[in-house]
Design a protein that fits this description.
Helix content: 25-40%
Structural class: alpha/beta
Number of strands: 11
Distance between the termini: 60 Å
Number of helices: 8
Order of helices and strands: EHEEEEEHHEHEHEEEHHH
Shape: globular
Strand content: 15-25%
Amino acid sequence: MPTLPHKDEEAAVSASDVVLVVFDGVEAIDVARPASVFTKAEQIPRGSCRLPIASRAAGTVLTNGGLSFAGTVTLAQLPASIDTLIVAGGDEPGVRAAIVDQRIGAWLAHNAPRIRRVASVCTGAFALAAAGLLDGREATTHWRVCDLLQELRPQARVLRERIYVHDGPVWTSAGVTTGIELALALVEDDLGHAVSMEIARTLALPMLRGAEQPQLSQAPEAQALASHWPRERVGWYGT
């Protein structure tokens, strides 16, 4: 299993590089939510964090929803020392192509020793698994593919009912929107609980889920069963 350096308690957090790795077919929210959190963290103090978005070939990356991330840098252009690297997830064809064709898993396996902390959002965990970074560790991913991840990487222990999992220098989160809880937990790990909660308030987050909460919230389940308003009472903007 490739080794990652454990957190150096003496390491300064100023001017650190937090890299977001993307690919064609990436889920836009997997990138946008962590980016929003770290953009706010960059202001405490201002200039303390750089946030490059990287892809295998650089340039413009098309998300699975049709949005684009322009101006990405190549993985080869990343600095020699990286503080935190987060691999976003996406639909199966995009993730598969990123691992098999673009060899992002192989790049991770080779470069892990120079990265203090590696994380994934949603199905980005499959890239970490391909790199061997989940071997002997607990991890999670989107609830729909937890069983698949466990089947493909039996060396890992995949936990279904977790928002995110922190095992040494490797962090993984569940599906899509849980990337915001992951990012806030990473900020808290560096800058403390008060800073993390202030960012959550700034982003108007209605509720911050803990790591050990289930992926499927009871609220949407209840709302799905609730009756809708009669159609005649609801018009455009409720008129």
